[in-house]
Design brief:
Layout lengths: L12 H8 L1 H6 L4 E2 L11 H13 L13 H10 L11 E4 L2 H12 L5 E6 L3 H9 L3 E6 L10 H11 L3 E5 L11 H13 L3 E5 L23 E6 L12 E4 L2 H14 L5 H13 L1 H22 L6 E6 L2 E5 L7 H12 L1 E2 L1 E2 L10 E4 L6 H17 L2
Parallel strand pairs: 1-11, 3-4, 3-5, 5-6, 6-7
Antiparallel strand pairs: 2-8, 7-8, 9-10, 10-13, 12-13
């Protein structure tokens, strides 16, 4: 079997780390699994009811949609999106999640050998995608003391130094939860557009930032150096439905359709209908979900104020980025120590970049508020015992 495309690419880190933690997991009476970002409740009942009705009564969902995706859904995205007045249905392609959208965008708009700048800590799947596509990753390390927020002047300096052809921005961020100020996003996008550098912006967690991209001028760069990818997995608990989107210019999407047609032809028709119903009928459910995540965020922030040796470096959206005190341990070793002593199953920081050995990512969105309180209480207890 020809494996040249994936040679040298890391293994999927979550199952790999779970395998290493197997013996510890078997010994524990209770595990607080915060290794992967999965909403702690199933798909909204309204969506399930409407999709079930369509499957039972209509043959349409048995067939392909257009390659770009269901027109109703694309029109609903225009109405829902904070920059929706700046793009049309012809500038949206529905994909099998945000990862698929990003992979398609990178394949479509960059050349083999191009340099791409990742802001570290970075989302590991995008690093993996770049390696598979023959892109040369460059890294700009963000600082905990600045809340892991990108300073536009510093980011632009790295773009100039590395001569990168593209940059990936993620806001709200995975893994840190940081919410990038829209004005800073605009500063980076504006510079990139004038210097022919592509910006790929992942907004999977947009519903959990009330100020997300709230500067209208950003919209004028869509298709002019800016492409946006997103997903309904987190906001509407549609992880299993695999539905996301790519927003870009018509010329870019004309090329992207070639990738879509050869990979999946179209995203799941049922998934697309589920997302459409979510946008049409579930605004109150989304508001409730956002309020629940805000509550979890407060529990995480307030509980971690008691820590003396561990510290919460950043927190927001679905994630807490925890700084551990074990200077002589790798982040993997530290995450295993944390698991064994508290039952908290996080993900090692070094999964998100070589400079992240002092951190552990906790996807607190996986837990109920009561379970998170118990987990944090256990963390504080362990913190008091650490030498």
């Amino acid at each position: 079997m020809n494996t040249l495309v994936t040679k040298g690419v890391i293994d999927p880190p979550i199952p790999k780390f779970k395998e290493k933690a197997t013996l510890i997991l078997k010994k524990l009476d209770r595990v607080f699994d915060m290794s992967q970002a999965v909403p702690n409740s199933p798909t909204f009942p309204k969506i399930r009811e409407l999709v079930s009705s369509e499957v039972a009564t209509s043959s349409a969902v048995s067939f392909y949609t257009d390659i770009l995706g269901n027109h109703d859904l694309r029109n609903a995205i225009c109405a829902f999106h904070p920059l929706g007045k700046h793009f049309s249905t012809d500038e949206i392609m529905i994909t099998a999640g945000a990862n698929h959208a990003m992979y398609t965008a990178l394949t479509t708009m960059l050349n083999i050998g191009d340099s791409i700048l990742l802001l570290e800590p970075h989302y590991f799947n995008y690093d993996m995608a770049g390696a598979m596509l023959g892109l040369r990753a460059q890294y700009h390390v963000l600082q905990a003391c600045k809340g892991f927020l990108p300073v536009p002047e510093a980011v632009i300096g790295s773009l100039e130094k590395t001569r990168a052809k593209a940059i990936i921005l993620i806001t709200p961020n995975n893994p840190t939860g940081a919410k990038y100020p829209a004005q800073d996003v605009l500063s980076i996008v504006r510079w990139c557009s004038s210097h022919h550098v592509e910006v790929f912006l992942d907004e999977t967690y947009l519903c959990f930032d009330p100020n997300h991209l709230n500067v209208n001028e950003i919209g004028k760069y869509i298709g002019q150096g800016l492409s946006i990818v997103g997903s309904f997995s987190k906001s509407h608990s549609l992880t299993g439905y695999r539905v996301g989107y790519l927003i870009s210019g018509v010329p870019q999407l004309k090329q992207a359709q070639k990738i879509q047609d050869t990979m999946v032809i179209c995203a799941s028709h049922i998934g697309q209908r589920a997302a459409y119903h979510g946008l049409q009928c579930c605004s109150d459910d989304v508001k409730k979900k956002v309020a629940e995540i805000d509550q979890l965020t407060r529990i995480m922030q307030d509980g971690c104020k008691k820590l003396k040796r561990f510290s919460l470096a950043s927190c927001g959206a679905f994630f807490g980025y925890l700084k551990h005190p074990f200077s002589k341990l790798s982040s993997e070793e530290a995450a295993l120590e944390l698991l064994e002593n508290t039952g908290i199953f996080g993900l090692p920081g070094e999964v998100f970049g070589n400079a992240q050995k002092d951190f552990i990512r906790l996807s607190f969105c996986n837990l109920s508020s009561s379970d998170l309180e118990v987990a944090i209480e256990g963390l504080c207890g362990y913190d008091s015992r650490v030498n």
